[in-house]
Amino acid sequence: MEQIKQQIRDLTKSDPAAAARKINQYLEQIDDMQLNIGITGETGSGKSSFVNAFRGIKNKDQQAAPVGVREKSKAVGPYFHPNYPNVILWDLPGIGSTTWPTDEYVNKIKFDTFDFFIIASDTPFRVNDMKLAKEIQKMGKRFYFVRTKIDQTLTNEEENEGNFNAERTLAVIRKRCIQGLREQGFEDPPVFLLSNNEWQQHDFPRLHETFRRELFDLKKYALLCVMAAIHLEVTNNKKEAYKDGIKYYGAVSALGAAVPIPGLSVAFDIGMIVKAVKEYVTGFGLHASSLHRLATSTGVPYDDLSFSIQSVLAKGEVTGDVILKLLTQLGSTSVLLATEEWTRFIPFLGIPIASALSFTATHRALNFFLDELASEANKVYRQALGLNRT
Questions:
Q1: Burial annotation 53-67 (CB, 10 A radius, 16+ → b, else e)
Q2: How confident is the model at residue 76 (pLDDT cuts 50, 70, 90)?
Q3: At what angle do helices 288-298 and 16-27 cross, to 10 degrees?
């Protein structure tokens, strides 16, 4: 996978369309790709026992993930699934302990290195479960929610309930789990009620069948997410390079403001901004020719890629009139330009003030347009990969 990442990274820097073609080649070999699954949740939620049960291994077996007291001191370790080629389960430490505090957990564990997650919990829903789910969602990745120790829950309910019915109790538990996730913004979250001690009961057979059926799509989605992340990385690098150049545009703008000719400075600023924005549009691959190449490489219609773009800067020709209209919508920036126009005629102090205002206005406008176009570039690439529709 690391070799694939580097090849795509190198291609993306020079030609996103060529990178997209390479991705299609890898998709044809998706069965050979590894899927790294992070098993996460609070300490004591049954993560390690689940890792063992999911692989059909008892807790006392030599190849088993450490459980109980042994689990607390373990390092993050990989466990290969015997029935699913190239599927690796990573038994992650429990969130919220003194060793792995909630606020540091995601960064310390390096969540972004995993392709897919299973959140294990022995209760319907916890605050930490919600935090984990939101972090996974923020990374654009998927997860299953596994409610463990369901056998213990049923035993407790039977002891405390006079008119006990196992199926009814399971239905209530499932509904509460799904409802809790939906309340946090997760639509139709995959929820499985399991007992790590009873491999053939409850939702274990359904989990295996669901996973077997979705394995190809999970690998494909993981690969596409990696490619989208690489494109984001390359786009951000370009964005930072462009940001470094904004101060030079600002400095030239400040010099133009020192010339006491009415309207000259604003016209000069607009011309520079047009030049810079055209450079951004080309650099981020948002012009028509780049979109056509990307459409051809991915098989996604050009119109679909074009439709995903919202910014007027990337949808048509960048002209002085377009920039001026957008600047008037940027409130404080338009005020700076207008103020600059009359302040430079103030004796002695006018020129320095006008230069400072011109620098600030140009700097602010270019940063705003740069952020907008970088965001559009990533949106278009995700559309090309099919991630916006997944």
A1: bbbebebeeeebbbb
A2: low
A3: 10
